[in-house]
């Protein structure tokens, strides 16, 4: 059993089995180009990442087949078809399949078996374990979202897998020992009479877990620097016989972080390749980018390290191909390259669909339950740049829950503000029946509700930081709503407040944009020393997005999921009417003139 106390006997046996008793994968030698050239063989690595609970090519929020403007498809069932095709094409040759993490969170399917019918209560096999076991991966790396539902559920999911789960830099906080398997070494056959190739696979998870899931891991797990961890384990793997070293890392390659400097770098993959010798290739994820093939030169050895990231949700499959030669008793890589395959070119694998069909159908039935009736259509399409009723719905529910919880406490007389972000540009509450999937489509993350006390000065600083979301546009310059935001700042890192009235002047420099901040419904400026209770999600309160002033002791934390609070409110009221919660209180301006 995987637990924060370190690898169990079972894990050690799994590692030993992966290193010593893995069935040999036969590989036919590649044709030599000429009699003078050494004999060569080939190895193919197939990589997935950030599947986020997608098995079927299905959009649970629309109750329809998934579709987007680029005709992408999604889901592990599509990935399985590509993987099986390549395995068939390479029958008799060596093929490994890895995943770089963020697997068990991200869809109503994943949420259902974590919250509505949690596998920890029912003992049922998780749909992502069912799907991935059909594919028969060689290893999966733990992503940061694997920790969203707590360590007991993560532990059970790992035990349900038929292959190792890796996370070398997740360390037991008390013992300092690895909490999960750091790596495996697989024996790969390269043909008749050829020496065996030993492939080392190191898994690295994201240090941001310590912030984003602080409530689940604090005091239990420590998340070490990914670069330092690779520098520690790669030599060990080489010393234990790894001829080829692959890293499966849940971190991007930008070298930047969405959180502050108090934790190791969130996206250090290129730095790992550059600074740590002995690595041949890195499959990575987390940033949801499509990086087909990137080479990074190791500064100590001059080796070209191959990097690839296969987008998100099962839209792409990375393929890395290695040509190997045996020289002076050692394996060397004579050539390596990566390509990317698109899952919209294939149909879904029937075996994967069958393995998860009952769970998929149960989830579809659940999300199509009607929870309320909306008096008008409410859309999130403009929520990034206009005050919309649908975002106020979130803030109203959050404020109401926190206000009721603090009644009769020392904070009861403080005004309650609320923060929400426009997570979705496509969410809609239709006029008429509103279903669970409509609410889930508005609030797509599994965040819980918390509250802290902020001063007026802290609120202003927070709003100034949030306002960096917008490009600077001079008065009179044309405004394209689709281009109004800085592409470097994701929508989920733009927050709006309820409970105060304010203007954001996008003609002014970042840090000088909150030109009006007054008490709600008045012209009274917010004093720096004023005190407010602020309802906020756990991701933001823990430091996600590196917003100033928000990381402090909670005055409310009942571990209630915000999505469920929204559903409960709608069910209790029966009617969703903007008149009950819409309070226009912020706007974009340029020199005082509204932009919209």
Automatic annotation (TrEMBL):
Keywords: Hydrolase, Metal-binding, Multifunctional enzyme, Nucleotide-binding, Signal. Residues 44-289 form the Calcineurin-like phosphoesterase domain. Its main location: other. Residues 370-548 form the 5'-Nucleotidase C-terminal domain. SUPFAM superfamilies: 5'-nucleotidase (syn. UDP-sugar hydrolase), C-terminal domain, Metallo-dependent phosphatases. The keyword Signal applies. Its cofactor is a divalent metal cation. Residues 1-32 form the signal peptide. It is found in: Cell envelope. PROSITE patterns: 5_NUCLEOTIDASE_2, TAT. It holds the Pfam family Metallophos. The keyword Hydrolase applies. It catalyses: a ribonucleoside 3'-phosphate + H2O = a ribonucleoside + phosphate; a nucleoside 2',3'-cyclic phosphate + H2O = a nucleoside 3'-phosphate + H(+). PANTHER family: 2',3'-CYCLIC-NUCLEOTIDE 2'-PHOSPHODIESTERASE_3'-NUCLEOTIDASE (PTHR11575:SF6), 5'-NUCLEOTIDASE-RELATED (PTHR11575). Belongs to the 5'-nucleotidase family. This is 5'-nucleotidase C-terminal domain-containing protein. The lineage of its organism: Bacteria, Bacillati, Actinomycetota, Actinomycetes, Micromonosporales.
């Amino acid at each position: 059993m995987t637990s924060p106390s370190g690898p169990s006997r079972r894990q050690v046996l799994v590692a030993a089995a992966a290193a010593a008793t893995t069935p040999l994968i036969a590989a036919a030698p590649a044709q030599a180009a000429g009699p003078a050239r050494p004999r060569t063989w080939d190895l193919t690595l197939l990589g997935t990442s950030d599947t986020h609970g997608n098995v079927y090519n299905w959009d649970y929020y629309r109750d329809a087949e998934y579709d987007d403007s680029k005709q992408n498809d999604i889901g592990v069932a599509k990935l399985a078809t590509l993987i099986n095709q390549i395995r068939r094409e390479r029958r008799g040759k060596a093929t490994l399949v890895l995943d770089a993490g963020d697997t068990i969170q991200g869809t109503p399917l994943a949420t259902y078996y974590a919250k509505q019918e949690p596998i920890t209560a029912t003992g049922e096999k998780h749909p992502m374990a069912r799907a991935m076991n059909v594919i028969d991966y060689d290893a999966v790396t733990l992503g940061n979202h694997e920790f969203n539902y707590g360590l007991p559920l993560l532990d059970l999911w790992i035990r349900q897998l038929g292959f190792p789960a890796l996370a070398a830099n997740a360390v037991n906080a008390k013992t300092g020992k690895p909490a999960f398997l750091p790596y495996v070494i697989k024996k790969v056959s390269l043909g008749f009479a050829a020496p065996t190739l030993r492939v080392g696979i190191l898994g690295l998870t994201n240090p941001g877990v310590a912030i984003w899931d602080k409530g689940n891991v604090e005091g239990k797990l420590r998340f070490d620097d990914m670069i330092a961890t690779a520098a520690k384990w790669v030599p060990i793997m080489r010393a234990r016989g790894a001829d080829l070293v692959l890293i499966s890392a849940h971190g991007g390659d930008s070298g930047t972080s969405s959180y502050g400097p108090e934790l190791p770098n969130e996206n250090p993959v290129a730095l790992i390749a550059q600074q740590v010798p002995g690595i041949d290739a890195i499959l990575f994820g987390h940033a949801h980018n499509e990086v087909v093939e990137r080479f990074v030169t190791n500064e100590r050895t001059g080796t070209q390290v191959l990097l690839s990231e296969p987008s998100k949700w099962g839209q792409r499959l990375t393929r890395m191909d290695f040509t190997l030669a045996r020289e002076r008793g050692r394996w060397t890589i004579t050539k390596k390259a990566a390509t990317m395959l698109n899952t919209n070119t294939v149909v879904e694998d029937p075996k994967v669909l069958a393995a998860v069909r009952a769970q998929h159908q149960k989830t579809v039935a659940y999300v199509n339950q009607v929870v309320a009736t909306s008096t008008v259509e409410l859309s999130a399409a403009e929520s990034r740049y206009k005050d919309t009723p649908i975002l106020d719905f979130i803030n109203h529910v959050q404020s109401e829950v926190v206000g009721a919880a603090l009644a009769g406490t020392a904070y009861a007389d403080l005004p309650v503000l609320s923060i929400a972000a426009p997570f979705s540009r496509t969410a809609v509450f239709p006029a008429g029946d509103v279903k669970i999937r409509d609410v889930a489509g508005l609030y797509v993350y599994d965040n819980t509700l918390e509250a802290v006390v902020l001063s007026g000065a802290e609120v202003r600083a927070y709003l100034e930081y949030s306002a960096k979301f917008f490009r600077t546009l001079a008065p009179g310059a044309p405004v394209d709503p689709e281009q109004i935001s800085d592409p470097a700042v994701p929508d989920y890192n733009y927050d709006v407040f309820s409970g105060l009235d304010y203007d954001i002047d996008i003609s002014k420099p970042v840090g000088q944009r909150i030109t009006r901040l007054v008490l709600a419904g008045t012209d009274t400026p917010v004093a720096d020393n004023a005190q407010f209770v602020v309802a906020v999600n756990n991701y933001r309160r823990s430091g996600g997005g590196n917003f100033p002033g928000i990381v402090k002791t909670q005055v409310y934390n009942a571990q209630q999921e915000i999505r469920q609070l929204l559903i409960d409110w709608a069910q209790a009221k029966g009617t969703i009417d903007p008149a009950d919660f819409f309070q226009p209180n912020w706007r974009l301006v340029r020199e005082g003139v509204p932009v919209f």
